[in-house]
């Protein structure tokens, strides 16, 4: 008890300059991955808790961002709160940073130590939405196992994020969690099996046996959109010939053409366009009002960008946040794509103030 009291008095006596120096020493040791130095500093009384200065990241955030699990564990054992936030990065929690960097063991450790699984960032997105964005099914499973909610809305909810990104396995897992994963009828299941096997003859046989060209897969999205997303050109042609609606939207307003543009399937996009697919159509707000050109930029598909421009796609269409495709290219530091859009006639963006 006397030893603990003496340590408390020592810490209380630290001047602001001394506290800042102690923090910098600890932060430097964490960045270097020097676990022994971290242990020594903590044993000498340096605080493992979050700094109260907004320009300084909490020690735990530094350890998590660098992937130093043993150091993070040591900090937590010395009293570091498990939910520090990084104000300069969307007010993200340590758990979000672990997810962002795909450090699953670190995420698991943080959850064991009480990290709040349903905390949200400055946009309202929880860690589950971050994992869904990357299509990381093991991380999604981990978060769901710890009580992650699928209905928290930031840039859409987790299901909508999975649809926008085209992450089919993650989407199926999320819908199963909600209890809304569909069970297709026998004819549709035969068609889906033919589609998965890339067997046009079997697909046509399934259509002849009663499968509906305008039917939906187990996720509730059009069969044509699935064929387009997977680049199954012959299946796309067969479905269109059987009467599939060329611009049939999914629940967030994405069309088969949008799916093809995001995934880079130029021949599929051309087949859809030949049947009247619109290049100027925008998704629903839950799909961020994205157009085929936004999705071609998001998917880094220069050939699709050139083709869409030649087809008359609006170069300066705005998404739900007012951003044209050029903003997506510049915001994600895709310099070559930004230059391509400007070359094709996109309006330059005003300089940032």
From TrEMBL:
Biological processes per GO annotation: protein K6-linked ubiquitination
Gene3D superfamilies in the record: Ankyrin repeat-containing domain
Protein name (record): Ankyrin repeat domain-containing protein
Keyword Signal attached: yes
InterPro entries given in the database record: Ankyrin_rpt, Ankyrin_rpt-contain_sf
N-terminal signal peptide: 1-19
GO molecular function, one term: ubiquitin-protein transferase activity
ANK repeat start-end pairs: 90-122, 123-155, 219-251, 252-284, 288-320
Keyword terms, alphabetized: ANK repeat, Repeat, Signal
């Amino acid at each position: 008890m006397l030893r603990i009291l003496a340590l408390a008095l020592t810490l209380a006596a630290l001047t602001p300059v001394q506290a800042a120096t102690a923090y910098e020493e600890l932060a430097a040791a964490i960045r270097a991955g020097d676990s022994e130095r971290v242990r020594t500093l903590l044993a000498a009384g340096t605080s493992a808790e979050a700094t109260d200065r907004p320009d300084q990241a909490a020690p735990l955030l530094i350890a998590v961002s660098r992937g130093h699990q043993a150091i993070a564990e040591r900090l937590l054992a010395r009293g570091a709160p498990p939910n520090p936030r990084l104000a300069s990065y969307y007010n993200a929690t340590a758990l979000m940073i672990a997810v962002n960097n795909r450090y699953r063991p670190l995420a698991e450790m943080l959850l064991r130590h009480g990290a709040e699984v349903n905390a949200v960032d400055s946009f309202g997105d929880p860690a589950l939405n971050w994992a869904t964005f990357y299509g990381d099914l093991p991380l999604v499973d981990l978060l769901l196992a710890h009580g992650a909610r699928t209905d928290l809305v930031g840039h859409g909810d987790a299901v909508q994020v999975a649809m926008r990104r085209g992450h089919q396995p993650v989407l199926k897992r999320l819908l199963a969690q909600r209890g809304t994963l569909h069970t297709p009828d026998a004819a549709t299941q035969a068609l889906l099996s033919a589609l998965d096997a890339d067997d046009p003859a079997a697909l046509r046989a399934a259509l002849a046996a009663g499968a509906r060209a305008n039917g939906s897969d187990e996720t509730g999205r059009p069969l044509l959109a699935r064929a387009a997303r997977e680049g199954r050109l012959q299946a796309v042609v067969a479905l269109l010939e059987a009467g599939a609606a060329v611009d049939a939207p999914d629940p967030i307003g994405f069309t088969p053409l949008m799916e093809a543009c995001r995934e880079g399937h130029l021949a599929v996009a051309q087949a859809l366009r030949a049947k009247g697919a619109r290049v100027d159509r925008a998704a629903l707000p839950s799909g961020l009002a994205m157009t085929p050109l936004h999705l071609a930029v998001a998917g880094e598909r220069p050939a699709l960008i050139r083709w869409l421009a030649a087809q008359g796609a609006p170069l300066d269409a705005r998404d739900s946040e007012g951003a044209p495709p050029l903003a997506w290219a510049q915001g994600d530091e895709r310099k070559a794509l930004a230059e391509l859009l400007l070359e094709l006639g996109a309006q330059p963006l005003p300089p940032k103030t």
